[in-house]
């Protein structure tokens, strides 16, 4: 490559990383719109969770076919991109396979393993495509996965295939140029897969094959930069966010709810037979939240917003949700997708109003998620158990229900009756406390 190519490459590289950095900044800003929450406790357990669930993909393999294929794509994609480092150095300094002389036979092993992984990735991606588009697994054709989210999943599969094919074509043309009499390129690498592709260049002039090599090289690296920037718009963001998401996930047992301190105090007072209801209780202004529960994304905590960006849209939650299975409107996957969509909308609002959110007469509640969906939840935690990246759709559902009940008194009639009974009788039944033991007088 000449100097002009190196300069052009530097410009493309800087532009790609700059655009990516600006989008990462937006994501962090949006996640920080959430309510503060301390998740610094127990770092040992958190690192273990991250290593096991994000890196080791322990929850993915609960469904073995998808799990193992996913590991192939994940490992393949990450490891092959190690070569990116060499490509970047070659591109910037006009060298060719700069690591080869330093790594010797290790280099050959590396390139050979990249090629084998590339072919495995193509195989796994093809199976994924077949599952989505030919076998049409129920969770991939569910009504909450239409429009862009449906196409997005396919775009990613196409992207990955094209990148792997370009990688192999790049190697094949390179190998041909290494083997021509006089050797246009120096000998470097071992090519167990692309050696079968290289013969297609036989009979072509060296100039043409060098040109083709450069085309494959450029398309490959530009493709990677485009893919990196596409992540911001895609569910594929999980390849990065699964790590912080599993680290900051709730460590409490799944059935444990986070009670509001101010409400807990009230209830304890109500249940304490020795409490004097007329005694002036000290009012702790800080303990009373400005708003109970959540009606919009800014009312959710930052971990819930991180959850929304991390959702892989795999639908494992929805496929195991009893409410969804019995035909209710609720889909925990949709809860996460709606939260992300609304968060993106709020973020765009802030971007176009000089850093300030201007009320847009919309909220996550009603405009995205309806009370009907929220009240269909049985709070069984199946969605949390199933999620391969430790997301909790249930926590968002509960916070939004809390808002409906405590801010709007908008619970279903049966619940309102129960809550009135608890308030008046200290129990969910319609009897006064004095009548509780009447049953034993009956014959
Ligand atoms: S907790 Fe609610 S949303 Fe999650 S699986 Fe159970 S019923 Fe569905
Ligand atoms: S919440 Fe988890 S299980 Fe549900 S779609 Fe998202 S990643 Fe999959």
Automatic annotation (TrEMBL):
<feature type="domain" description="4Fe-4S ferredoxin-type">
    <location>
        <begin position="302"/>
        <end position="333"/>
    </location>
</feature>
<dbReference type="InterPro" id="IPR017900">
    <property type="entry name" value="4Fe4S_Fe_S_CS"/>
</dbReference>
<feature type="transmembrane region" description="Helical">
    <location>
        <begin position="155"/>
        <end position="173"/>
    </location>
</feature>
<feature type="transmembrane region" description="Helical">
    <location>
        <begin position="109"/>
        <end position="130"/>
    </location>
</feature>
<feature type="domain" description="4Fe-4S ferredoxin-type">
    <location>
        <begin position="367"/>
        <end position="397"/>
    </location>
</feature>
<keyword id="KW-0479">Metal-binding</keyword>
<dbReference type="InterPro" id="IPR017896">
    <property type="entry name" value="4Fe4S_Fe-S-bd"/>
</dbReference>
<keyword id="KW-0560">Oxidoreductase</keyword>
<keyword id="KW-1133">Transmembrane helix</keyword>
<keyword id="KW-0472">Membrane</keyword>
<protein>
    <submittedName>
        <fullName>Fe-S oxidoreductase</fullName>
    </submittedName>
</protein>
<dbReference type="InterPro" id="IPR036197">
    <property type="entry name" value="NarG-like_sf"/>
</dbReference>
<feature type="transmembrane region" description="Helical">
    <location>
        <begin position="6"/>
        <end position="24"/>
    </location>
</feature>
<dbReference type="GO" id="GO:0051539">
    <property type="term" value="F:4 iron, 4 sulfur cluster binding"/>
</dbReference>
<feature type="transmembrane region" description="Helical">
    <location>
        <begin position="65"/>
        <end position="89"/>
    </location>
</feature>
<keyword id="KW-0411">Iron-sulfur</keyword>
<keyword id="KW-0812">Transmembrane</keyword>
<dbReference type="InterPro" id="IPR051460">
    <property type="entry name" value="HdrC_iron-sulfur_subunit"/>
</dbReference>
<dbReference type="GO" id="GO:0016491">
    <property type="term" value="F:oxidoreductase activity"/>
</dbReference>
<keyword id="KW-0004">4Fe-4S</keyword>
<dbReference type="Pfam" id="PF13183">
    <property type="entry name" value="Fer4_8"/>
</dbReference>
<dbReference type="GO" id="GO:0046872">
    <property type="term" value="F:metal ion binding"/>
</dbReference>
<dbReference type="GO" id="GO:0005886">
    <property type="term" value="C:plasma membrane"/>
</dbReference>
<dbReference type="InterPro" id="IPR009051">
    <property type="entry name" value="Helical_ferredxn"/>
</dbReference>
<feature type="transmembrane region" description="Helical">
    <location>
        <begin position="215"/>
        <end position="233"/>
    </location>
</feature>
<keyword id="KW-0408">Iron</keyword>
């Amino acid at each position: 490559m000449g100097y002009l190519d190196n300069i052009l490459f530097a410009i493309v590289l800087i532009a790609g990383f700059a655009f990516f950095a600006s989008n990462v900044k937006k994501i962090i800003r949006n996640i920080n719109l959430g309510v503060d929450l301390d998740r610094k406790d127990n770092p040992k357990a958190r690192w273990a969770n991250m290593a096991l669930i994000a890196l080791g993909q322990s929850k993915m393999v609960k469904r073995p076919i998808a799990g193992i294929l996913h590991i192939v794509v994940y490992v393949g994609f990450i490891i092959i991109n190690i070569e990116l480092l060499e490509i970047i150095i070659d591109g910037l300094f006009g060298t060719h396979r700069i690591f080869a002389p330093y790594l010797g036979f290790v280099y050959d092993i590396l390139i050979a393993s990249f090629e084998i992984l590339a072919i495995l990735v193509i195989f796994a991606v093809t199976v994924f495509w077949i599952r989505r588009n030919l076998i049409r697994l129920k969770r991939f054709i569910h009504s909450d996965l239409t429009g862009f989210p449906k196409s997005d999943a396919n775009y990613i599969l196409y992207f990955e295939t094209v990148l792997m094919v370009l990688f192999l074509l790049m190697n094949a043309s390179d190998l041909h140029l290494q083997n021509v009499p006089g050797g246009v390129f120096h000998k470097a690498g071992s090519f167990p897969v692309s050696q079968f592709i290289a013969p297609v260049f036989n009979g072509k002039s060296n100039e043409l094959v060098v040109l083709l090599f450069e085309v494959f090289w450029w398309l490959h690296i530009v493709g990677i930069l485009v893919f990196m920037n596409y992540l911001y718009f895609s569910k594929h963001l999980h390849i990065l966010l699964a790590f912080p998401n599993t680290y900051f996930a709730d460590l409490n047992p799944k059935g444990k709810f986070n009670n509001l301190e101010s409400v807990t105090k009230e209830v304890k007072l109500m249940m304490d037979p020795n409490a004097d209801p007329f005694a002036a209780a000290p009012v702790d202004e800080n303990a009373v939240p400005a708003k109970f529960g959540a009606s919009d994304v800014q009312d959710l905590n930052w971990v819930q917003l991180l959850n929304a960006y991390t959702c892989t849209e795999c639908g494992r939650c929805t496929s195991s949700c009893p409410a969804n299975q019995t035909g209710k409107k609720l889909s925990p996957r949709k809860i996460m997708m709606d939260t992300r969509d609304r968060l993106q909308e709020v973020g765009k609002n802030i971007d176009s109003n000089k850093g300030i959110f201007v009320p847009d007469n919309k909220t996550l509640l009603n405009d995205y998620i309806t009370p009907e969906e929220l009240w269909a939840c049985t709070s069984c935690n199946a969605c949390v158990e199933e999620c391969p990246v430790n997301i909790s759709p249930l926590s968002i559902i509960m916070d939004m229900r809390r808002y409906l009940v405590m801010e709007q008194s908008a619970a279903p009639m049966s619940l309102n009756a129960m809550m009135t009974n608890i308030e008046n009788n200290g129990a969910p039944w319609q009897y006064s406390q004095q009548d509780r033991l009447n049953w034993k007088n009956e014959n």
